[in-house]
Amino acid sequence: MAEVDSTYPVMPEPEWAKPRDKKAPPPDNKSVIDSLKKTAFVIGTALICFAAARNTITWHVERFWGASGDLWQGWWMKIHSLFGGDEFLLSFVGSNVVTFSVFWVFSALYLLVDLTGRPKWVLQYKIQDGSNQPLDLKKLMHAVKLVLFNQIVVGGAFTLFLYPVHSWRGCSFTPELPSFHWVLFEIAIFTLVEEVCFYYSHRLFHHPRLYRYIHKIHHEWTAPIGIVAIYAHPLEHLLSNMWPVILGPLVMGSHIATAWMWYSLALMTTINTHSGYHLPFMPSPEAHDFHHLKFTQNFGVLGCVGSAPRHRCHVQEFKSL
């Protein structure tokens, strides 16, 4: 297991991360109830809207899917042939190649801006203005080393373990791709599974007895950049970064191509969330950026759970930084 360089300065522990006095009153659970209510409302509203609009939406999407379906199928056939249809190679080698490539290609786009300050027009969308300008190269290299360890050692070992699990769950490795409707349904399930699992694992690592030993590493970056999306203690990377994303495809027994698409989407989402830039037409990373700055609030991925009302009270303060 990789250890954090003891010579590298880390952020002091916030007051809330210290063990709570046993005589102190129990924490208020109202925010948890509010989060559950918000989640139920969001999911319920989304289902109603989807049910109302699905005929129109699916008609347009099916036209696109039908026009490009042969293209996707052709590409997949080439990939499938490249691996000789070998299920182990597709599960282990293919999954690692896809996730490694997507992570570094997408994060490199943000890293280029952080290192060069160009193109300059992007800098106006910096959330914490002036942060990481210039970027601390020693701090960056420290992060890169742990990220590579997590990808190669932790990720490699875990995907090796996953191959027999894929077989047990009946995951498909066939040359034929699943239908558009089924992929769309699975992505919705994956999103819900990730939101719930990440939220509770994230809250667990914020527990005072665990934070100082595990999650504190990730919070060294109070103004995050793209690659620190998986800059974390190896145990946290396994349980909080990988498991919530991988669990959905395992539960659904998904086709490996669907799993690859989901892994890529999840990686690009978390890189954007940690990028420190709120670019036009991209999902806002402000909530998670605030979490890194204050070490509290916004524990979820989408904000359905873990975004307590207290966060709204700090929005103006955050934007004024």
Automatic annotation (TrEMBL):
What is the native source organism of this protein? Desmophyllum pertusum
> Per UniProt, which keywords does this protein have?
Membrane, Transmembrane, Transmembrane helix
Q: Name one GO cellular component term.
A: membrane
Question: Where does the protein end up?
Answer: Membrane
Q: Where are the transmembrane segments?
A: 40-61, 88-113, 146-165, 180-200, 221-239, 245-265
Instruction: Spell out the Basic and acidic residues composition-biased ranges.
Output: 15-25
List, for all copies, the residue spans of the domain called Fatty acid hydroxylase.
188-302
**What's a single GO MF annotation on this record?**
iron ion binding
- This protein's name: Fatty acid hydroxylase domain-containing protein
Q: Where is this region: Disordered?
A: 1-30
